Every structure is written in C-alpha cells, then in structure tokens.
Automatic annotation (TrEMBL):
Pfam families: Transp_cyt_pur
Record's protein name: Purine-cytosine permease family protein
Keyword flag Transmembrane: yes
Major localisation: membrane
Taxonomic path: Bacteria, Bacillati, Actinomycetota, Actinomycetes, Micrococcales
Stretches that traverse the bilayer: 37-58, 64-88, 114-140, 152-172, 179-199, 214-235, 247-271, 299-320, 367-388, 408-432, 457-478
Family in the record: Belongs to the purine-cytosine permease (2.A.39) family.
Keywords: Membrane, Transmembrane, Transmembrane helix, Transport
C-alpha cells in the first residue's frame, strides 16, 4: 500500500487515457504477462535506423566479422541488463525511478533522476528529428517539395503523434505497439528483400580487422546506443506484471523483444553498408533518409511510413517514461500533463535542430556518451540492489522519507558520483570540433598509462563499462548489510500472509 488513495478507472479511461502516475499500481490492474513485454520493446526497436548503426560501427575501423560479434554481444547484453532492471517493476509495481529510491533514498533518487530525465528527453528528441529529416529526404527523392514547408508539416505531425500517444498512457501504448510491430516489421522485411541484390560479400569481407581497443569502442557505442539507452525506463513497462510473474520470463521477453529486431537489422546493415561504402558519409548526417536513396521510387512512401512509425514508437516510450521521471523528481502535476510538458520540450528541440542547427548527430553522440557514464553507474547500483533483495519492495517506504529506505543513501549516491568521475576520465569526446564544450573528458588516460587522449585506448570509451561494473561491485559489497537490515524490519512489520 502507499499513502496515495487508490484510483478507480472508468471503462473509458482504462481504454484511452492512463491516469496512474508514479503511485504503486493496484493489484486489480496488474494483469500483464511476461510475454506482453515483447511488443513494446520490439516495436520500439524494429526501425530501419538500426541499419544505420552499421556505418557507426565500421567507423571504428573494424572488420565485418568483428562488427558482427560487436553487434550480437553488445545488443543482447545491453537488453539483458534492461531485463534485470525490469524485475524491479514486477516487485514494486512503480516506475523505474521510484523503485530506484530503495537504493538511493527517497530524496537521493533525484540525483540519478535528473540524469535519467535528460537521457530520455535527448533520445525522444533525437528520434523525432530523425523522423522529420527522413520525411524531407523521401519527399525530395519523390520530386515533391522538400523545403521549409515540408519540414514544418512533418515536425507538427510527428510531434503530435508522439505527444498524443504518450499522454494517453500505458494501455493505449501497449495496443499501439502491438499494431506497429506488424506494420513496421512487414515493411522492413520488404526493404531487405528489395536491397538484397546490392550486398556484395567479396567487398564486405575485404575490410581489415581493427585493434582490440577499436572493438571495445564499437561495443560500448552499441551498448550505449541500444539497451543502455533504454535501461532507465525498463521497469516502467513491467510494473503492470502480476506479482507471481517469473523474473526469468520477464528478463527473457524483455531481452528478446529489444534485441531480436536490432541484431537482425544491424547485421543486415553491416552487409549493406559494407557493400556500399558510399552510404557511410550520408548516414552520418541523415541516417534513414540515406537508406531511402537506394530504393525504387514506388516503395519510398511505404518505407517512409515504416521509418516514421518506428521512430514515433520509440519516442513514445521515451516521452511516457520521461514524464514519470519528472513526477518522481517532485513535479506535482498529473501524469498526462507531465507527458505533455515533455512533449513541448521535445517539439522545441526538434524545431531548433531541424531549422537552425548546422550539425546535430555529432553533438548528440557526444552528449550520449557523457550521460551514458553516470547512467551506467546508476544501472550497476540498481542491479546490485535487485540482486541483493529477496522480498518485494516496501511500497509505503518508497514515498516516505522517514521510512526504511530513508531520505538519502549516501553509499549509493557516493558510489554513483565516484564511478562517474572515474568513468568520465576514461572516455573522450569523439566529436571535439562539433562539441568542443565536451573536451574536458579523458583526464585519467594519461596518468593510468593508457596513452592519453591521443592513444588507442582513448577511443574505446571503457569508462562506460568501468562505471557499470564499479556501480555493481561496490554496491553489492557495501550495501549487503543495509538491504538485509531493511528486509528484516520489513518482515517484522508486514502481514505474514503477504509473501514476496
């Protein structure tokens, strides 16, 4: 139970607009099955944008075989980590950042909460921008207008779709995602069939192998760009799971739904881009639009539909969760209003990039790596907390600074800060010219004998993995007694009939 009064939904509200905010979901509403998690994760990731990542992977100077290993391991592992975080949703039936209070304290959670909100806002804006630019490129290929008017209309339509779906909430989004999965999946299969003749295995296999550092760098980029980019919202979609749901099943369906489409699409992208090196430069500025240039004219409209719907699908998940994160930070407004507020920010960001910014992909990737470090540290801390716990969360204490989780857990906060400082010292800004504001990183590469900012290890960006591992290991060792004490007190006060 929580301090919040239970919410009674009418049939209409249940079908159209979710009124639940960050409060714990009532038992009567926990009707989802683990297999239901497949649909939102698959729909959000069955995007032709995944093929574009082939160009980014090859940018590290590695061979096709190395790139395949990087794609499979990086994607599966990163979505597996999302699945682990999703277990918390079943145990506590609250949003990810509310459940994070068990590890950081009710007020201490605001530290990772701000990072999470920035990551979600960044990702959803990025996906909206991709959709607008893809529309303009396809219109140009069709010989239609591709100027300012086209971009204005595309911006309005794309942002409206994203905001309306996210405002509607969980029930509408789950239905929407199941439909989008089939539509975008089918059109993507047709795209592959129509471009398969361009694949030239002899050209693909000519690429020379890269160094170990390059492989690690590509692996970190793939993990950050896919699963780790979603990890801060993973429990938002499992909070409607039944208490009796299998944790292993939740991990499995979460991992399968997210990783399956990405592995297939990045894998095919490696074949396609490896056969057509001329695609690499265009992908850097307009990933999806560039992939459209190799299509026959008659298929451009279906391709655009699939691309935009897939991007919208991903952005909907992001903005829904960023709204929940905003509420967890103490913003006292209804959940639909929080999603709408984030929608305004998304729209403003999209307009600025599409109409005024000279370059956005490079600064965005720099931003992603920078926030990826503290986000990885937080993920390691929360996964260790999940691994240590044997009981469901004390729901009341998640909302009470005087409860068993306290206001601040300085061990977790300190671990996140230290792991982030170490992690930032082991990554560099790969886009020094386009994002000069971010050239302060990499300060440990020299002192640790890794060649400094110009050395080969600089581009491996191992700081993300170091932050993740440090967060997990330190928390698992340092907070074991704290968690045991919390759960012992919980067992003494709970009704024995309520089993975890």
């Amino acid at each position: 139970m929580t301090d919040n009064p239970p919410t009674t939904l009418t049939i209409t509200e249940r079908a159209l607009v979710e009124v639940n905010g960050i409060e714990v979901i009532e038992e009567s509403e926990r009707t989802a099955r683990p297999s239901d998690l497949f649909w939102p994760w698959f729909a959000a990731n069955v995007s032709v944008f995944g093929m574009s990542y082939a160009a980014f992977v090859y940018g590290f100077g590695i061979s096709f075989a190395q790139a395949v290993v990087v794609a499979v391991v990086g994607v599966v592992l990163s979505f597996f980590l999302c699945g682990v975080i999703a277990i918390a949703g079943k145990r506590g039936s609250a949003p990810t950042m509310v459940l994070s209070r068990a590890a950081f304290g009710v007020d201490g959670q605001k530290v990772p909460g701000v990072v999470s909100w920035l990551v979600s806002i960044g990702w959803e804006t990025f996906l909206a921008i991709m959709a607008v630019l893809a529309t303009a490129t396809v219109f140009r290929e069709l010989g239609w207008a591709d100027g300012t008017a086209t971009k204005v209309i595309a911006t309005l339509v794309v942002t409206a779709l994203i905001v309306l779906a996210s405002v509607a909430g969980y029930h509408t989004i789950m239905r929407l995602q199941s439909v989008l999965t089939w539509v975008t999946g089918a059109i993507t299969i047709v795209y592959i069939a129509m471009t398969l003749h361009l694949v030239d295995l002899s050209t693909v296999t000519l690429r020379e192998s890269g160094s170990t550092e390059s492989v690690i760098g590509a692996l970190v980029m793939v993990m950050t760009g896919f699963g780790l980019g979603w990890i801060n919202i993973a429990a938002d979609w499992s909070r409607y799971q039944k208490r009796s749901a299998s944790g292993a099943a939740i991990v499995f369906w979460n991992t399968l739904g997210g990783a399956l489409p990405v592995v297939l699409l990045v894998g095919y992208g490696l074949l396609l881009v490896g056969s057509r090196p001329d695609l690499e430069e265009g992908i850097a500025n307009d990933p999806i639009g560039t992939l459209a240039t190799i299509l026959p004219t008659w298929f451009l409209v279906p391709f655009l539909l699939a691309a935009v719907l897939a991007l919208v699908s991903g952005a909907v998940l992001g903005i829904y969760s960023s709204g929940l994160t905003l509420l967890s930070l103490g913003v006292d407004i209804p959940r639909p209003a929080a999603a709408g507020l984030d929608g305004l920010i998304l729209t403003a960001g999209t307009i600025w990039v599409v109409f005024f910014a000279e370059s956005f992909l490079a600064p965005f990737q720099s931003f992603l790596i920078t926030l990826g470090v503290p986000l990885a540290a937080w993920a390691g801390i929360l996964m260790a907390d999940i691994a240590l716990r044997r009981r469901s969360y004390d729901e009341r204490a998640l909302f009470d600074v005087g409860g068993r989780y306290g206001a601040w857990d300085w061990t977790s906060v300190g671990t996140m800060v230290v792991a982030s400082v170490i992690g930032w010292g082991l990554v560099i800004n790969l886009f020094a010219d386009a994002a000069s504001w971010n050239n302060w990183q990499g300060y440990l590469l020299g002192p640790l004998g890794l060649g400094g900012r110009e050395g080969t290890w600089a581009y491996a960006n191992v700081g993300v993995l170091v932050a993740l591992v440090l967060g997990f290991v330190v928390t698992y060792a340092a907070r074991r007694a704290t968690v045991r004490r919390q759960e012992a007190g919980q067992a003494r006060t709970e009704d024995p009939a309520v089993a975890p």
